Amino acid sequence: MQTLLLPGEGAVGSYGKLLKIGRRGDNLTPHHIPSNAFMQAKVPGYTKDKGIAIMIEHLSPGMGGRHRKTLSYGQSPDLSLSPRQALAREVWDVRSIYRSQGLYILGIRRSLPELIQANKSTWSGIFDKVRV
User: Fold this and answer.
1) How confident is the model at residue 1 (pLDDT cuts 50, 70, 90)?
2) On the CB side of 111, how many CA atoms lie within 13 Å of its CA?
3) Whole-structure pTM over 0.90, yes or no?
4) Residue 38 burial by CB count (10 A; 0-12/13-18/19+): exposed, middle or buried?
5) Strand 28-32 to strand 12-14: parallel, antiparallel, or no bridges (unpaired)?
6) In contact, 52 and 12? CB cutoff 8 Å
7) Of 33, 48, 50, 76, which is the most exposed, with the fewest CB atoms less than 10 Å away?
8) 3-state DSSP call for residue 73?
9) Are 54 and 91 in contact (CB under 8 A)?
């Protein structure tokens, strides 16, 4: 059975901004892409609140939810990746989760490119292609 997106799911912005618009009991959480731990290790001047995130389902209390299915949830970051690679990998991961649940609908399809662009504009030069 297909479930629907929660109201506000797929919203993109800084973690700090999304945290302020969320409300207790909405079963949503801002999910950093790339992960907060990766960005802290790789990007000078980065702070958790300025990190780019997407609102994603996180059932509370409970064990389910799309947030817990992400590859970065509760994991150490792969610091061998470039920021560009980490961004691509985590966007692909979230896209795959929504596709597997039949929820890769217009709102999410629009949110992921917005998330990529927000990262590129917030962290100028960090996600550029590395020329060899």
Assistant:
1) very low
2) 26
3) yes
4) buried
5) unpaired
6) yes
7) 76
8) coil
9) no
